[in-house]
TrEMBL record:
<dbReference type="InterPro" id="IPR035930">
    <property type="entry name" value="FomD-like_sf"/>
</dbReference>
<protein>
    <recommendedName>
        <fullName>DUF402 domain-containing protein</fullName>
    </recommendedName>
</protein>
<dbReference type="Pfam" id="PF04167">
    <property type="entry name" value="DUF402"/>
</dbReference>
<feature type="domain" description="DUF402">
    <location>
        <begin position="54"/>
        <end position="167"/>
    </location>
</feature>
<dbReference type="InterPro" id="IPR007295">
    <property type="entry name" value="DUF402"/>
</dbReference>
Amino acid sequence: MGFFAPGDVALRREVLHGKPWSVTPTRVVLDEPGLLVVFTVPGTVFGFPPHHYPHGWQAAGNTRWRGHGKLQLHRPGDAYSVDLYWQGPERRFAGWYLNLQDPFRRTPLGFDTLDHALDYWAPVEGGWVERDRDEFEAQLAEGKYTAEQGEAIRRTGKEVGAMLDAGDTWWDRRWADFTPDPDWPVPTLPAGWADYPLP
């Protein structure tokens, strides 16, 4: 599949148990063989197709993105993304959030993945903390992941923790200076977003 141009809309679709689980339209910032960078524009509305496993955001009434938006860095094959967040009225850079998820798979309309709940937060002030271990373990017990997937996710978590301990991070910290194009409108879900085929 071809690459996207800056400003294109790419659908970030989560696929659970072989069925679409959630869909977020994002704006492409950079797409090249070694790195895919997308931005979730403030106000973006999420799509939740019918699914036997309820999505936590939908259950909580979180239907759109709030705040300053989120920048996501993806390397092919990595079982996590590096998400950047900004806070406050001055849009102060807050830090890097390593979001464990399936390695992304390209589709004609964007890319597919699946969030793994377990995450790692590295604030700009230094250090790091593990996030949502209890949520991940609960989802594993509920059958969201198989036992084999659970072990793989735990291994990825250990690798991420070791990388952060060593300070051997691969991403360019200048992404913290990213400012979205003010001319970008909030992307919307296209017709057929809930039923376009899996790759």
